Amino acid sequence: MAPGKTAPRLLQDVLTYDARYEKRAANLLVSPPPQHESKGRALAAVPTRNCRHTLLKKCEQSQLPVAGETPDHATVYKVASYCTRCRWHIDVVVDHRSDPGKDRPCKKGDTDYLLHHFLYEGEGDSDDANALGAQLQPHTYTFRCSAPHCPVAVRISLKPPRFSEQDIDTLTNQAQLRRRWEVAKQMAGDRADTTMARRVDAVDFLNTYLQDSLNPSPGKRRIPLLNKRFLKTFGRDCDSILKNLGFSNQSEPEEDGSMCEVWYLPKPEDAKSPLESTLRNKIEDARYEINTIILAIPEAERTGCRHVPMYPGPSRADIERALACADYAKVQGREARSANHEEDHPHYASLGAIGDFDDALILFAFSRQCAVDLDNKSYYFECLQQIAVGRKSEMLETQVALLASEGLVSRKDLEHAYRYFNINPMHGPVIGDDHIIGSFRARLSDISPLQIDEARKQLRVLGDARKSDKLRAEAAGAIETYEQALAWFDLEHSHVDDFVMTMYSLKIEDNPASLETAQRALSIIAEKRKSQRLRQFLKTGAMTEPEMDMGDAYAAFGIQDRNAALDLEVLNSQLSMGGGFGDSARMEKAFALIQQDQASNQNNHIADKNRPEPRRNSYPLETWPVGLRNIGNTCYLNSVLQFLFTIKPLRNLILNCEDHMQDLTPEALKGKTVGRQAITADRVVVAQKFVRELRAFFERMITASTDTVQPNIDLASLALCRTDSPEGPPKSPKVTVTESTVVDSIDRSVASGPQPPPPSGDATPITPADSVMNDDDDAKSDTSTKAMDGDQDDRPAPPTRPPPIPPRPEPQPATSTSTKTKISILEESARQQDAAEVMGNIFDLISCAIKGEGVMRENEQLDAIKKLFFSDVTTILNTAKGTGKQLEHRDFFLVTPGQRDRPLYAALDDDFGQQEIEGGTRYDYIEAAAPIQIINLRRIQFDRVKREQVYARAHIGLDTTMYMDRYLAKTSRLGEDQLLELRKAQWEKQGQLRELDAERTELQTTEIDGMNLAETLEETSTFIDGLLTEKSEHQQRNQPGQDSLPTPPPELADALHDKAKHVAKGVEGIDVIMRDLETDIDAIFRDCNDVPYRLHAVFTHRGGVTGGHYWIYIYDFQNDRWRSYNDDRVEDIDEKTVLEPETGVQPKASTGVVYIRADLVDEYTEAVCRRPETIAEASQADVDMRDAFDDGDYDGMPSLEPAALDDVQIIEGVDVGKE
Ligand SMILES: [Zn+2]
Ligand SMILES: [Zn+2]
């Protein structure tokens, strides 16, 4: 017999089952889950690429349950839904009509059968054949409840979208629409429409046709092919789409006798029972899909649409009601998890249960599973047992003990016990008890006293399994009491906890096999002594500081008088300055204690960072990313940290960094470089320190029970310190200044290495960061200059050496670098770097810290960072000497925004395209593209004419999908030669573009900041005009003294005005030509879309050359939403805000964008990863289970994405609310 699954499990499987990928994995809907082998590698139960469906109701096709209604033997429910993500249609039919003898459907409150427990019956015939591949065919799976008196059968139908991806492309792709328009012009000549169809038009018209066909009215059934709008929108390309939907076409004679082709709308039958499948349904389905497609098109592009948006509600609650599992009993603290479909431990799936079942339901699932699949009872017992332990559930553990006392032993335990005595488990049934006892005694003689316990335990397992009192008696006698536990460790009552831990470690070191006994003994001592530290030690294996008392806390800050009210802000600022204090965790603890004491004894409060903050939004904590408070002028650091956190493989690498740390031996480091610098032990030490800080911080980002956390200062200073100059400010600061703006060829070295300083000596270094500076400016510029000069002697001492005794901090004049606090040193570093550099620095740090997997060119270490972020770029140099090739690994591309708004493609085309160099030309392409592409925008540039930095504010238009094809060496469809041909065509147009740009710049440039030539002329004209008016007024009033003003010729103002207009027109004309050229360039690569990348993050800056503020927008692929991460604020934001330019005096500017290869977005990104501590207490247990009882490797196992149907805003802009 095969196992079954309870109704909630069935529903969860439906919500994650994806027929498109069925052949790649076991069919998770109908195959029994694989038995979990604790030693084996844990596999994701749900392939990551599967759609986590967001199901919405199709009311016309449904027969919904009514709340409170009791089903009878005639009841059939049908919940028809479609998914707004993958557009599949999923029907759940719950049929109560079977055998009239079965009249007790399972339900909550029933004494025996609380939930349906379904067995898979088979695949029914699909009523809707489809010629596509097997994965894309409709399937109907039937399940029947295993309860003896329950009549319920469930049919689950999965139907592919009515519109394939290709159909949608045919209908909405602009290139195709343009071609169609060209064809229309050829066919219809003068009668053709004058503009091409918009992206939205075809689906919008189609929607109207379909709507008309559902509600037919006379005169609206016939569409002549030559109708000019129809012709340019659909043409001939859409015949198969129309026919699939029931449209028909034929030739008819026109009045003038000529034949013309005409389309007729489909003729669906009248609405029938929702249980029948008809053409009408097909049309309704198509309209739901069109609704999704249209709403995905930006609102600005759908003005004038006839389509009226539909906002159907989510269907999950209806399905739950139909399956009688709308509100089953849940374990406390787990509700959110199951709603998120976070992947449960495989043991739950094996029981046909899900993680949020309360203990009674777990037992119910266990008993149902044993009832239908007796053969695997010992495995199900194993599942139950481990869930019990994992949950630390007394109720379940009691039940397990009860079952065990009845002789039920788990499969794993039994096999293990036999093997322990060198008996093949297969032979167990034929071997006598005496043989086993003999084997046990033989063992005792040659094992150490410490192992005896283990032997006894194994013997008891066999005794239980074999129901043998003889074996049980032999096995009796383990550590049960506090006295025994102390004796086992050779301890006295008087020994303190620290000593207990020491003895524990010694014992395990002596004999690793005694681990389990030692843990048991330790846990007995911990419980007897009620020692939190010992419990913690047992749980985490780490020693915690001895408890700090109030006296220690005050002493830590050097405060003698504990009874005076203190200025807590001062203490707090001392704390955040960090300098001078050693262990920051200890100081924070001391501060927290003092605050507590001051609050209760002195009624002295401050706004406390450690106290729960008031919530900032209403999202449940576990569904919302944490904000990062700003610790100084380092706000771009927060953006970088937020970004890195969302890159799942990177985050997992950091969280599990201890498994990957680089060995410090000379052999391990020999001959390897990171960032072109040899890896030295010093670099590795600093890098590992950073990685550990980052891990601790990521953990806090995950577990914090507040909306925000604060990066610690050590993390920040390590992130800002170059790996080749440990713990000081950078030796050779990279200043984001380059020569550009005008026609000169761009200095390419900036793309990969330190950038050249500005050519003029008087230009000060630029600090692209940041907001308000609090310190004394003089002191700062002083030290930053020193740091800039790289003068070793003047560099501040390494900030991390604490003095032996915490001194009482006193305000000191900031006269020398040695008295600078950590934060100010940090801010100096910060001023010299920007987000791009910090990110590169962090990559190098991580690479230095971790073991490589080999070496690449130039001995550069190959590792996870390289694989994620580094592309292999080839530069082709054509000079008189011939053709040369340069190869380089790059973690980002640097493009110049220029002076005009334009799309990212255009900027990248410039960067990659052919350029003049001394004695020849060069161009770039990507030999191997990294899955994550970072493109930085050079906003601050050096203007040679003005000899100063200018901020290039041009808007760079981003597409949410970018095709990398044109930058690659080759793609699956185009070989190197074919791509080169296309490139050559592009270069020619780029040459013209550059000439025009030069001309345009010429026409624009003036010496006046913020004004172009046309504006300058216009202003001058207005001024002269005003002057003349004023003068004539004065003359009329006969005032003296005004005649000394020069009199401009009266026609000058007009002439200037004309000139201004002329110039503006000229610029406009050039703009038009340039835009056309860019469109042409774009068109060269129009069909190159094999390698799509999706937009993931946009680093954004508002400010100027002297400072400003950074934040980041990050897309959450799992929840289809953009968020803005602005220091401590993480907010929902619509896509428009991310993509569209701002107006105003100082519009925001993107400084970096990140694209991720489209097929990897789910695997590589996860914006939300929270397990707030307070909420996690109950679920923590399951995590423990994994650690303590499961050797399975969970590190590599992606967790499922949250897809809380009830919380997700399903349709953009409309809050569907909860059902
Ligand atoms: Zn879906
Ligand atoms: Zn049932």
From TrEMBL:
Annotated Gene3D superfamilies: Cysteine proteinases
Domain USP: start-end pairs: 626-1158
Positions of region (Disordered): 748-821
One Gene Ontology biological process: proteasome-mediated ubiquitin-dependent protein catabolic process
Reaction(s) the record says it catalyses: Thiol-dependent hydrolysis of ester, thioester, amide, peptide and isopeptide bonds formed by the C-terminal Gly of ubiquitin (a 76-residue protein attached to proteins as an intracellular targeting signal)
Gene Ontology terms, MF aspect: cysteine-type deubiquitinase activity; proteasome binding
Biased composition (Pro residues): 797-812
Protein name according to UniProt: ubiquitinyl hydrolase 1
Lineage of source species: Eukaryota, Fungi, Dikarya, Ascomycota, Pezizomycotina
